[in-house]
């Protein structure tokens, strides 16, 4: 059943590529490959046979996506399969990267052209500095290995801004487009406009990335304050993580005095918000204050960009 379904998906993808090519829309289609297909000794020949039936399709327009977990047990066979089909110009992507048991092994031994960062890391990178560190590391590793890197789960304009600044130029997610019927794709490509912020931003330097990580940590701590406030468990002592934040600030090698100011400002801002909540300051005032702090910090980090925090974008709420 799985093999039959996989064959049907492959054939439908090639049919759709034929239609789009006829319309003058030359694009690439990615399809997921499951473990049964990977272990099928006839899979490679079957793919090539299907391609032979669709002469209007360039093999490079077909990309096969492999999940890390599906490649785990047969990594040598999967590596050989990829090499065989790549010799016929078929593309491969390693999907949901970072969620498997041996991500670094796959990056080294599987010659996939594209590495797709799992959406679980991308979605949380705006308020979880550890997730952002993972995303930044995968981007840099992928580039070191000569791979294209793509981020999954881009839901907002800020996700795209941060990713562009970290050096990731390809993405997918609801912030770009939601799933749609194939006959609507061509019109969408003609009407969609890339957010200006994404095209203006340059790749950040290491010291600027450090400062951005601290801003993300600030956002995360403020979200934690919100949760504690909503559950009436607001602490009366500083966050346990404040020692780490202060230590990280001391290491951040910001030669730019404006970045240095951000690095020094964040710990005190977090503590000021906690104390203000404990003293009964208005939640609305604090939410506005916190968003303004973040906006001002991001303006410094993205100084080459005409940056304004979108009016409907509230990084955190206190209600």
TrEMBL record:
InterPro entries: Cyclic-di-GMP_PDE-like (IPR050706), EAL_dom (IPR001633), EAL_sf (IPR035919)
Record-annotated membrane-spanning stretches: none
Domain EAL: 1-193
Record Pfam families: EAL (PF00563)
GO MF annotation, one: cyclic-guanylate-specific phosphodiesterase activity
UniProt key word Transport: no
Keywords, alphabetical: Plasmid
Top-rank lineage group of the source organism: Bacteria
PANTHER family, A to Z: CYCLIC DI-GMP PHOSPHODIESTERASE PDEF (PTHR33121), SIGNALING PROTEIN YKOW (PTHR33121:SF70)
Record's protein name: EAL domain-containing protein
Annotated source species: Pseudoalteromonas xiamenensis
């Amino acid at each position: 059943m799985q093999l039959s379904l996989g064959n049907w998906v492959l054939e439908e993808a090639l049919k759709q590529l034929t239609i789009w090519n006829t319309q003058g829309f030359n694009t690439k289609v990615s399809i997921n490959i499951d473990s049964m297909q990977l272990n099928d000794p006839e899979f490679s020949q079957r793919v090539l046979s299907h391609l032979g039936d669709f002469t209007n399709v360039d093999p490079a327009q077909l990309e096969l996506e492999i999940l890390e977990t599906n490649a785990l047990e047969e990594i040598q066979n999967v590596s050989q399969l990829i090499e065989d089909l790549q010799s016929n110009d078929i593309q491969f992507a390693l999907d949901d990267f970072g969620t498997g048991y041996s991500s670094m092994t796959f990056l080294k031994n599987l010659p996939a052209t594209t590495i797709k960062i799992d959406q679980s890391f991308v979605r949380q990178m705006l308020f979880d500095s550890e997730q952002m560190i993972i995303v930044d590391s995968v981007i840099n590793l992928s580039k070191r290995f000569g791979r294209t890197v793509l981020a999954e789960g881009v839901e907002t304009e800020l996700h795209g801004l941060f990713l562009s600044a970290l050096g990731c130029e390809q993405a997918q997610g609801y912030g770009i487009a939601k799933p749609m019927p194939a006959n609507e794709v061509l019109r969408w490509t003609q009407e969609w406009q890339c957010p200006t912020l994404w095209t203006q931003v340059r790749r950040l330097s290491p010291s600027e990335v450090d400062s951005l990580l601290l801003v993300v940590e600030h956002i995360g701590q403020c979200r934690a304050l919100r949760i504690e406030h909503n559950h009436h468990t607001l602490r009366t002592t500083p966050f346990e993580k404040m020692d780490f934040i202060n230590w990280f600030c001391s290491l951040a090698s910001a030669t730019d005095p404006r970045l240095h100011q951000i690095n020094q400002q964040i710990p005190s801002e977090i503590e000021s918000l906690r104390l203000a909540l404990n003293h009964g300051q208005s939640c609305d005032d604090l939410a506005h204050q916190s968003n303004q702090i973040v906006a001002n910090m991001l303006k410094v980090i993205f100084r080459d960009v005409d940056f304004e925090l979108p009016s409907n974008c509230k990084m955190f709420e206190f209600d």
